[in-house]
Design goal:
The structure is a single chain. Helices cover 21% and strands 39% of the residues. It is an alpha+beta fold. The protein has one domain: Roll (Nuclear Transport Factor 2, Chain: A). Strands 1, 2, 3, 4, 5, 6, 7 and 8 form an eight-stranded mixed sheet that branches. The chain is globular and about 45 Å long.
């Protein structure tokens, strides 16, 4: 398995691509599937207590054992108490060429300086701190 990341609109790192490949290969990739969604969840995260925001990464097969990153989405609680709902806080949609935050939609290129910071934090939380439980679907 290889994840094609080199010519995406944002500077996705080789480290992220390799870690996603390693995780999917280790935890099983259905042979007949052409898409994989990875859900990263901090089981302690809540609207009241905070924690590490959930992240979803979608991969789609582009060719013989070559995959691409379709989107990376981070969610956050919006609202108070029992009325809080999970909403997208940042969404890097590589297929649509759009970046979304709580203020709306923008061309994905606007996130060029934000993305490396986001990715570095995500890798630290996932690999360095081990805060996420990961589900593959």
């Amino acid at each position: 398995m290889r994840i094609h990341y080199e010519d995406l609109a944002l500077p996705v790192s080789q480290k992220l691509a390799e870690q996603l490949c390693e995780f999917v290969q280790k935890h099983g990739q259905p042979e007949t599937c052409n898409s994989i969604t990875l859900n990263f969840r901090d089981p302690k995260y809540s609207a009241e207590a905070g924690g590490f925001r959930p992240v979803e990464i979608r991969l789609e097969q582009q060719g013989d054992n070559v995959w691409s990153i379709c989107y990376i989405t981070e969610f956050t609680y919006v609202g108070l108490g029992p009325f809080a709902e999970l909403e997208k806080s940042v969404d890097f949609d590589f297929q649509a060429g759009m970046y979304q935050d709580l203020h709306g939609y923008h061309p994905i290129e606007i996130a060029r300086s934000l993305y490396p910071i986001w990715e570095d934090n995500f890798l630290t939380y996932w690999l360095g701190m081990g805060v996420y439980e990961v589900e593959v679907s």
